[in-house]
Write a structure and sequence with these properties.
Layout lengths: L3 E7 L3 H12 L4 E5 L13 E2 L1 H9 L3 H7 L10 E4 L6 E5 L18 E2 L2 H12 L3 E3 L1 E9 L2 E8 L4 E11 L6 H5 L4 E16 L3 H4 L7 E4 L6 E5 L5 E7 L6 H9 L6 E15 L7 E3 L5 E2 L7 H20 L10 H21 L3 H4 L8 H23 L2 H4 L22 E3 L2 E2 L8 E5 L6 H11 L3 E5 L6 E3 L5 E4 L4 H4 L3
Parallel strand pairs: 1-2, 1-10, 2-7, 4-12, 10-16, 20-21
Antiparallel strand pairs: 3-6, 4-5, 8-9, 9-10, 11-14, 11-15, 12-13, 13-14, 15-17, 18-19, 20-22, 22-23
Helix pairs in contact: 1-4, 1-8, 8-9
Pfam family, one: FAD_binding_3
Organism: Nonomuraea insulae
Cofactor: FAD
């Protein structure tokens, strides 16, 4: 194990691994410290990788790998179906969920992807390689003017110290790094219990009358919840809402509406939290992912917000470590990412105000006449209250860093996507660092190129004839349009 590294990452979940991949993308060595020796498939956690996260995976050359290994192809379904039970009657459905319908769209370089979090972690682990140190965890750290001394503890209690120039804390809700910098969560916990179950149900899919869907919402007042497939074999997940502890076989059969064959693989009781760290960073220690924010899962934003954190802090650390940006650039991380997390928490909490228990109606469980009498009203309530949960591209693709000191007043948004030729995205032409996009014969190009050379900033010129110049940051967000300075975009 190395005793000196440029960046040490506490926690090797998807956000810690993404931070390491981003650093490697810029040629920066790091060490990821993670207690788990292997990834467990029994608690799939997040299941939606957003269109924006998939664009970033494409940037790392990993999007096709993840899709090829995902148990559910993106073309399999983009539907959420609301039912009286899994084997019962359909009430209504919502299509185009989670950006899964964006294949070939001009809005994004990649559609979303339904894929269990463990597979995302495995793909990222492979990309990180020997920078991942498992079986150990960060148990403490001391920061000084020149770096951070990190204490690492093994499962048997052996301790070692590693010296790092910077630390990124991706160590989750009980973050040691958050405690070390004196940061604390602000927010609240939802009082309603939930019960996750992963199970095998041979033959269930063949018996269901509703067709493929990424979510099946069961609006049975006696047993509300939602379920979905983890693969196209026999493995499923479900969330029983309003349940703290119960017989999982009974819960699954209640959701199914019949005494189906069930093998329970794992259970996981939980409560939703709306929490935001009051500060994201010290001089040399930065928080990302669940160490910085937690939100309810409704809308599929969870770890995707953390992937955005990873890219933001990753490129900035690389710029500072390579010497082409001042250390003051790192101070913009909190100002850019914390508002995004706050917006995400608010959106997810709003989605959570109406769940299956609130939409359920006893008449849905009656005879056909009673069902048909109440179905239109329930369907209207579903479409009115749940549409934004499944259609949130304004948040997923539309978040902006407007107001940041390193973007121009009219900039900060993600560079609008376009296809330049079949299968070739504008994003594919961008460099790993800054890109100057537009007509390269324009008068301002020579000045920007000279400035980049003087500062030692890697700059790729992307020629789009007749188009105004746009300076694009490493994270694909716009620094300025028309004219501007690289120095401003680096906080110099």
């Amino acid at each position: 194990m190395e005793t000196h590294v440029p960046v040490l990452i506490a926690g090797g979940g998807p956000v810690g691994l993404a931070t390491a991949v981003e650093l490697a993308h810029h040629g920066v060595r790091c060490l990821v410290v993670e207690p788990r020796e292997s990834v467990s498939w029994l608690r799939p956690r997040a299941k939606t990788t957003s269109a924006r996260s998939m664009e970033l995976l494409r940037r790392w050359g990993l999007a096709e790998t993840l899709r090829a290994r995902a148990p559910l192809a993106v073309s399999w379904s983009d539907q959420a179906v609301f039912v009286s039970s899994l084997l019962g009657r359909e009430i209504t459905r919502i299509g185009g969920c989670f950006g899964l319908d964006l294949t070939g769209s001009g809005l994004a370089a990649e559609p979303g992807q339904q894929v269990p979090q463990p597979l995302v972690e495995e793909v990222l682990r492979e990309a990180v390689g020997d920078a991942l140190l498992t079986g150990r965890q960060v148990s403490g750290l001391r920061e000084d003017a020149d770096g951070v001394t990190v204490r690492i503890t093994s499962a048997n209690g052996e301790e070692q110290e590693v010296r790092a120039q910077y630390v990124v804390g991706c160590d989750g809700p009980r973050s040691v790094t958050r405690q070390a910098i004196g940061s604390r969560y602000e927010g609240r916990e939802d009082g309603r219990p939930n019960f996750n179950i992963v199970f095998r149900a041979p033959g269930l899919a063949e018996r269901m009358p509703h067709g493929p869907a990424v979510h099946y919402w069961v609006l049975n007042p006696a047993q509300p919840g939602l379920a979905g497939r983890l693969d196209l074999e026999e493995t499923w997940w479900c969330i029983a809402q309003g349940v703290r502890e119960a017989d999982p076989v009974r819960l699954v059969r209640n959701l199914a509406g019949a005494d189906i064959e069930v093998e329970i693989l794992a259970t996981d009781p939980w409560t939703a939290r709306m929490l935001l760290a009051d500060r994201y960073a010290s001089e040399r220690v930065f928080l990302a992912g669940d160490a910085a924010h937690q939100n309810p899962p409704y809308g599929g934003h969870g770890f995707n917000t953390g992937i955005g954190d990873a890219v933001n802090i990753g490129w900035k650390l690389a710029a500072v470590l390579h010497g082409w940006a001042p250390a003051s650039l790192l101070a913009t991380y909190e100002g850019e990412r914390r508002p995004i997390a706050a917006d995400t928490i608010e959106a997810a909490a709003a989605n959570m105000t109406t769940l299956a228990p609130e939409l359920a109606d006893p008449a849905l469980m009656g005879d056909e006449a009673a069902f048909e009498k109440v179905r239109p009203a329930v369907a209207e309530a579903v479409l009115r209250t749940k549409h934004s949960e499944f259609h949130s591209l304004d948040l997923v693709l539309g978040y902006t860093y407007a107001g940041s000191p390193i973007v121009a007043p009219d900039a900060g948004e993600r560079l609008p996507h376009r296809w330049l030729s079949p299968g070739e995205s504008l994003y594919d032409r961008l460099g790993p660092a800054f890109s100057l996009v537009g007509d390269q014969s324009a008068p301002g190009v020579a000045g920007v190129v000279a400035e980049a050379r003087d500062l030692g900033v890697p700059l790729r010129e992307v020629h789009l004839p007749g188009e105004p110049l746009t300076l694009v940051r490493p994270d694909q967000h716009v620094a300025w349009r028309g004219s501007g300075s690289l120095r401003m975009a680096l906080g110099r």
